[in-house]
Amino acid sequence: MSPAKNAKSKTASKKKTQAKSKVTKAKTQATKAKTQAKTKATKAKTKAKTTTKKSSTTLKKKQDAYAAKMKKQVDKLDAEIESLEKKGQKAARDLKAEYREQLKQARAAKKKLQTRVKKLANTSEDKWDQVKDEVEHAWGAVTSSVNYFKSKFK
Fold it and tell me: Is the residue at 77 inside a domain?
């Protein structure tokens, strides 16, 4: 080979080697960039999961705290309702007893009135006014007692 061709061949070979070197270097840089990108993506995913876990843990704590607070309030309300129910049952017993007593008094007043009315039919003329006044007084007592009874237990 001639020295000129030999020099050209060496120059071409040198350029080819340089080009290959540049391509290899570019491939290496591309692979390195790709690996770095994957690493960053993995770190970002891990960070996102950690942040999500933290925020979901924080949310779960808030939910649990609120649920516990509301449960306490519901339990307190339930205790108050039971207390009112017991008071209502006691009041019902007391009212029943008072109702029976008022009814007993009304019947007793009615019985007195009936007795006086019977007495009125067999009264002599000289005692008529006195017995009549007693009947009217008994009548007033009975009607007053019954009206009071009705108003109290409407």
Answer: yes
The parent domain of residue 51 ranges over: 43-152
Alpha-carbon separation of residue 38 from 32, 41, 43, 50 (angstroms): 10, 5, 9, 18
With respect to residue 17, please indicate whether it lies within any of the assigned structural domains. Answer: no
Average pLDDT over residues 31-48: 79
- 140, amino acid identity: G
**Ordered alpha helix ranges (H), the chain:** 3-121, 128-152
Angle, vertex CA 111, rays to CA 107 and CA 113, nearest 5: 115
Report yes or no on 48 lying in a domain: yes
> For residue 27, is it within any domain?
no
Is this model's pTM higher than 0.70 or not?
no
Structure tokens at 62: 């808030």
